[in-house]
Design goal:
Blueprint: H1 2-22, H2 55-72, H3 98-107, H4 127-143
Helix pairs in contact: 2-4, 3-4
Length: 147
């Protein structure tokens, strides 16, 4: 009986995952190729900055620049060969909520949307730091039409 229940749960999980990945409005990241010498480290998307940032987002930008920009690029535009852009519909709040950022920093993230490899956990950031970083990313997302 327990085995049938377990198999049912696994089947539901697989079906749900397939739905999320294949639904008509599913976020689809652009194809990524192996980095070439010409583009290695180049921004992956064009980012429009908001006219102003809230005070929390300003703090978040400072933390982002210190810890996240090496992989996620200046203004979260991504870096070819290093890490994905956070200013992309894949990271819109309805797909990756704010808690996803907290968990990514605490636990790391196995590669699943992009071909950059796994993101390792990030040491030295408090939940408050990640909240400020997330506020910064969300404000820049909104300036780029990502709600």
């Amino acid at each position: 009986m327990k085995q049938k229940i377990l198999m049912g749960v696994i089947a539901l999980g697989v079906a749900g995952g397939a739905y999320v990945l294949t639904r008509p409005d599913a976020p689809t990241p652009p194809p990524t190729n192996e980095a070439s010498a010409d583009t290695d480290g180049a921004p992956l998307v064009s980012v429009t900055l908001p006219d102003t940032l809230s005070s929390e987002a300003q703090i978040g930008k400072t933390a982002f620049d210190a810890v996240c920009a090496d992989c996620h690029g200046d203004n979260a535009a991504g870096r070819d060969g290093y890490g994905p852009p956070l200013i992309h519909k894949v990271y819109e709040p309805s797909h990756h909520g704010d808690m996803a950022f907290q968990l990514a920093v605490q636990r790391g993230v196995p590669a699943h949307h992009w071909k950059f490899g796994n993101m390792p956990p990030q040491d030295g950031l408090t939940q408050g730091d990640v909240k400020a970083i997330t506020t910064y990313v969300r404000e820049v997302q909104r300036a780029n039409g990502i709600q």
